[in-house]
Design brief:
Elements: E1 6-10, H1 15-25, E2 34-39, H2 43-54, E3 59-63, H3 69-84, E4 91-96, H4 115-131, E5 135-144, H5 153-157, H6 168-171, H7 180-202, E6 206-212, H8 220-223, H9 227-236, H10 245-257, E7 268-271, E8 274-276, H11 285-300
Parallel strand pairs: 1-2, 1-4, 2-3, 4-5, 5-6, 6-7
Antiparallel strand pairs: 7-8
Helix pairs in contact: 1-2, 1-10, 3-4, 4-7, 7-11
Length: about 300
């Protein structure tokens, strides 16, 4: 039997994150993990924690604004204290679910970074790096990916811009005029690069995978699209089989916990419930090395 251990999830209050939390809370008692919910403190976090507790889960709420690296470091400190004191078991999985599409890429977080890149990528790189010693053997890191990093016919129809890679320092810098969707897709490409390099650097201490929930009309990605694309999205959203948070949440929970996915490593890419290959652009050893090095410098530039 699997040891349920502890699962940390960021962005647990809405849509995919909320339904992932509830799917984990509904698991049989012997397979139900302790849940660490890392998100903005407030009624939404309290509400999902209460729902999970009502289903029988042991839950710890950890207030954190992922746009602030100071907050992220403090949250990691809370997690380390919980694990080191024995109040919770070592982490079986960390689900890096939180994400945003900033309405304007010229905006900056309090740390001076472009918000989409900061929340989707930098915050999770900080959190994971701070918690590598808090994992159980063969613990899992599940990053949230998106196929928007490359264009196909449907994404072009919906006005979803593909990634436009540049040096990571440039991507992290606020830039007026950069498309919000371009910023989002590029951050998702960064996550793929990071997944590959994280596995190389961490070795066998953890197992790294990337989960793509499928396109979910009505969530943050849909709201970032043009009005015409949103109308198309609403129509397509009524087609049976299109992804929804209710459908994809349990699949994400399974990727983090089920024996079926225990072998995943190296940034293996799971599309809903199917292991799939990424496009050639998503594997680049030189970009991955440069991203890792630039990330370390950017994170260190923000005082603890």
């Amino acid at each position: 039997m699997n040891e349920p251990g502890t699962v940390l999830i960021t962005g647990p209050t809405r849509n995919l994150g909320r339904h992932t939390v509830l799917a984990m809370a509904r698991r049989p008692r012997a397979d139900r993990p302790t849940l660490l919910l890392v998100g903005r403190a407030g009624p939404d976090l309290a509400a999902v924690a209460a729902q999970a507790r009502a289903l029988g889960a042991t839950v710890h709420e950890i207030g954190c604004d992922l746009a602030s690296l100071t907050d992220v470091r403090a949250a990691a400190g809370v997690v380390r204290s919980l694990v080191d004191s024995g109040r919770v078991p070592p982490m079986k999985a960390l689900i890096a679910n939180a994400g945003v599409i900033a309405a304007e890429s010229g905006q900056a977080t309090g740390d001076g970074f472009e918000p989409t890149f900061a929340v989707n990528y930098l915050a999770h790189a900080q959190l994971i790096g701070d918690l590598l010693d808090s994992f159980a053997p063969e613990g899992r890191v599940v990053l949230l990916g998106s196929n928007t990093y490359h264009a196909n016919v449907w994404r072009k129809l919906l006005g979803v811009a593909p990634a436009q890679w540049a040096d990571p320092v440039e991507l992290a810098r606020p830039a007026a005029g950069r498309s919000p969707m371009t910023a989002y897709s590029t951050a998702k490409l960064a996550i793929l690069y990071y997944a590959h390099e994280l596995q190389r650097r961490a070795g066998d201490r953890i197992r790294v995978s990337v989960f793509e929930p499928g396109w979910m009309p009505g969530t943050a990605l849909g709201r970032g699209a043009p009005a015409a694309a949103q109308a198309i999205g609403r129509a397509l959203g009524r087609i049976p089989g299109v992804s929804t948070p209710e459908r994809s949440g349990p699949l994400l929970a399974a990727t983090a916990l089920d024996t079926r996915w225990a072998h995943l490593r190296g940034g293996a890419f799971v599309l809903k419930d199917r292991l799939t290959e990424v496009q050639p652009v998503a594997q680049d050893r030189e970009r991955e090395r440069r991203l890792w090095e630039a990330t370390a410098v950017m994170l260190a530039s923000v005082s603890p």
